[in-house]
Request: fold
Amino acid sequence: MFDRILVANRGEIACRVMATARRLGIATVTIFSSADRNARHVAMADEAIHVGGAAASESYLRGPAIIEAALRTGAKAIHPGYGFLSENPDFAEAVEAAGLTFIGPPASAIRAMGLKDAAKALMDRAGVPIVPGWHGESLDPALLFKEAERIGYPVLIKARAGGGGKGMRLVERSGDFHDSLEGAMREAEASFGDPHCLIERYITSPRHVEIQVLADTHGHVVHLFERDCSLQRRHQKVIEEAPAPGMSAEMRAAMGRAAVEAARAIGYAGAGTVEFIADGTRGLRPDGFWFMEMNTRLQVEHPVTEAITGLDLVEWQLRIAAGASLPFVQDDLAIDGHAFEARICAEDVTRGFLPATGQISHLAMPPHAAFEHSPVRIDSGVVEGDSITPHYDPMIAKLIVHGETREDALARLISVLGMIEIAGTTTNLALLRALARHDGFARGEVDTGLIARDLDRLVEVAGTDRRHMAIAAIVSLGLLRRPVGTDPWYNLVGWRQWSTNASHIRLERRGNGHDFVVSSLGGHRFEVACGGWRIALSVRATNDHAVECELEGHVFHARLAIAGEHVTIFLDGDAHGFDCPDPLAGEDEPAEADDGITAPMPGLVKLVGASEGERVMKGQRLFVLEAMKMEHTLVAPRDGIVEILGAAEGDQVEDGTLLLRLRSEETGDG
Ligand code: ADP
Ligand code: ADP
Ligand code: MG
Reply:
């Protein structure tokens, strides 16, 4: 076994790999960018080498600098994690050429599966069923259009070099084909440096079912059963589980065989995943699944497989890379219970899943194990105080739960999701909670369209009621009696002894202002009035982050996080954030709602669709903004003439930057 390895990644996966290395007595080296000097993976490693600037292209994607870091520190092998260089065959080759071991499959296997078109052709020849479609070489839009017409709509355009759902467009009718193709090609070129796309028939009611394989360098290949990753948004996984609901032994065997066949066909070694799409309309059937792609690396969702098999996949990656032979055969393996993984991400679900940024001012998790088997496992690469920047993936943590049955595991998922508290950035926790409680999901009726179909219901904002508002007002006014023996805490507006005078405060929730009048009634009792209502309640701090309240004989507990002018109230599993705007700060002069376009998130301007003085039509595409490798299109809010253009192609813009203003219409010239 290696005595020292370098982990060429960041975030939770770098930490996860290092945790296993440490358990096996292997010293760890990692790398970091200028943005990550204080990141958790750096703190966790024995040594870390700075490899460049914040942008991934200047650091985590700099193969030569990473190999140099390994040589400099005496690491014998490099683990690439997922993303970044993990599926780059040139990097794998360069690592080996430098006399180091690449902890992953041979470069030839990565190359064989690297491009989806070649992979499909290969699988077809190996007798593995593939999704019908076109996977030629051409870049000619007219030819691709003809193929799409032949395949029949809806079709899916995919970057052949794609990954992580990028460079993918669903096209439902002819008229949309060209715009979608252009977008897919541009995203493919930007993310993968290769504009080539393939076209597939879009399987309706699709289920994403994938098989984990493990192969050693001595010709042994086994599969570790399936994972169902059908809960997706924008073709990216949100909740994964193993085993797949409704899976029959017959279909499992058929898929397992096809996956092992795929791995054998390319001389695979290490841990890998063969992704299939299944037609969910008639239930899972052995004749209703097709090969989509193979991911020649560890997957984000590998912990659910670890939960149901008891194996540590990183340990097996390391052992296989060191030349070990798999000591078990297929028949030795069995499924133990059921597991779910939920990806907790910094994103604003209500604004089209826009990636969010910000500093995690408060992070509280229920008791759990990290990076190892446990009924409640939370793998995270951040700690309280860390910032989520636009440079990298917005995933904050992965929650993995394991239970004897699907029902047990789901109950655990619901309960733990309700105990996680994150403040300082917008997260998808509310969506995850809603999904975990979704009836169809509870029945195992999953398909990749579930989230989009039920989005309205899933993102119904948990109603902020008088309780949240009253607590926020009392806390923001600094009226709570300090819990005994604690540090300065309620310093939001300044500590104050209670007084019988009424205090006034204005708080904002999701951009709406609320004016409160709060009176202390003595002890822990207050009267709070706002708009048309008035309530009397008691609120008592039980510790630095918790209050016990009583309203009309009902006692309940809430948790609090305070950062600067922001208070977050956690109650019944939901977070409600309030801002206490500085009354002295000037009001931003609000642009007429439909006269301007502001950047909805920090990002890179990829395309500007108009110039100053140009007449544009409502709905016309005016900007393409890229953040975290996803593209977001911004369209004209109305017909009009561009008066001001606030950004040019290639600009990095901040959240809220005015990108464009339309001229007021009265002048109406043409
Ligand atoms: P990536 O490399 O981005 O992961 P995949 O080919 O694995 O790309 O596809 C990502 C997701 O898109 C799948 O999990 C599935 O939900 C959806 N998808 C892919 N191909 C099809 C298809 N032909 N029909 C319907 N959905 C598909
Ligand atoms: P999984 O199938 O394990 O969910 P994904 O395809 O979602 O894997 O990608 C795993 C991680 O790697 C994600 O953070 C994704 O953004 C990133 N990723 C995947 N493929 C690429 C790629 N080719 N280039 C950059 N990042 C990628
Ligand atoms: Mg995939």
About this structure: The chain is about 25% helix and 35% strand.
